[in-house]
Each structure stands twice: as C-alpha cells, then as structure tokens.
Amino acid sequence: MQDEPSNQLSLSLTAWALALIGWGGLVGLVSTVDPRVGPLPIWGFFVLWLMALTGTAVPFVGYLNRRFARGPVAAGVRLRQSLWVGVFGATCAWLELRNLFSSTLAALVLIALIGAEWFLHLRERARWSPDSASDESA
User: What's the total number of domains in the chain?
Assistant: First the structure.
C-alpha cells in the first residue's frame, strides 16, 4: 500500500498548517492575552498546543515509521500517530495546570495512549484481506 504523492503532499501541507497555526497562535496568545480573563484563553491554549505538537510530530513520526515499520504506512495513520503526541502533550499541560502532573501519571497516560494505538493497529490488521490488496495493485 504505497502512498500516492498527492497523499504525501496533503499530509505535508496539513502538518505545516497545524504547526504554523499552532505555534503562531501560541505566540500570539501568550504574548497578548491575559489568562485570568476567563476560560477561553486557557482552552485556546490547549487547542493551539495540541495543533502545534501534532504538526511538529508528523515528520518525526514519519521517520520512525520508515525506520521501524514492516511496510509502508498510510498518511492517515501517520497523522493519527502524530495526534497521539499532541494529545499526550495537551494532557500533560492540563495536569500541570491542576498541579496533578507527576512522572508516574505521565507514564500511565503514555502507556494508555500507546495501548490505544496498539489496539487500533490490531484492528487494522484484522480487517485486512488479500483480495483488496491485489485489487489495489492492479
């Protein structure tokens, strides 16, 4: 299942958009908005932080998949794995905001996210059929 160049291009554009909007929004939010105004700046921070980490993680996840995966990995799977990085970072930031963050809790969250990705990977492998693979290559 080799990715088409259009899928690679769309993944790259998505990663760039997420990273630029996320990091640019964070710079603007942190430098101009008072966080004591209400809940909107805090939730805006979490959304922008999630976007920034997800967009930044796409190239690293792509490298890890090229290096360690048994075969080519679809662009959607790489984006989903990058999203797990963003979710982990946003969860750790939220735990730190509530003064609940510890290395043990971060490790538990990381194990839970890795387990969720592992189950999704198992589900994808179980749904694979050789007939559909031969149809795609023709």
Answer: 1
